[in-house]
Known about the structure:
CATH class: Alpha Beta
Number of domains: 1
Number of strands: 9
CATH topology: Spore Coat Polysaccharide Biosynthesis Protein SpsA, Chain A
Structural class: alpha/beta
Radius of gyration: 19 Å
Amino acid sequence: MKTPAIKAIVFMKAHSARVPRKNLRPFCGRPLCDWILNALELSRYVEQILVNTDSDEIAQQASTFQKVNIHVRPLYLRGDHVGASPLIEYDLQMSEGEYYMQTHSTNPLLRSATVDRAIEAFFGQNKHDALFSVTEIRKRFYWPDGRPINHDPKILLRTQDLHPVLEENSCLYIFSRRAFCSTKLRIGSNPLMFPISSVEAVDIDEEQDFEMAEALMKSLLKGRKNGDCSSGPANWGGASV
């Protein structure tokens, strides 16, 4: 089956309470938002990137990428307490197409190769109406009342032998217009869970997350000419972890 073209949605608002100016803050020499935009731009299947923003400055920076189309966020969708579903609904109203992927600028280590694999996985099946990325965690988990979740305390297995618990890591969601309009959910009614590496799943929410993500990226980019990270996005999008 030929993989259809898909539009990517990225939310980027100006205000960030916990990491000021997060989207435009320098990350390895480039604005943080450049990293995810570059990964999407390098994707073989993403035909357009819809940047949903309330910031002229973010819009100007994002517009340096060829595939980007800016959706200026209307007043009723501005603020810190607007959820993802109303924003997606607005982006669908403002665009044409059947298939969409939503991701975040706070996932700078997500690679274009992984984006393409997720898209291929979604279109390579016909059972699920959506896809979302997960991270496998192999640790001993308990319910608050002390009941074990994924292991038997009487049998001390190695952690690598435990049944994994799957974390929704918010890195990427793929869905059709039809699935979203019928459920108002980006995970549809019967989603496919798509595992990605914990490295690519790094999400920047707090200040310490930003610092750790940047340190990790610098480590991954070691060996570049003069140790320069500023040109990172151009090559990281297709590199291997």
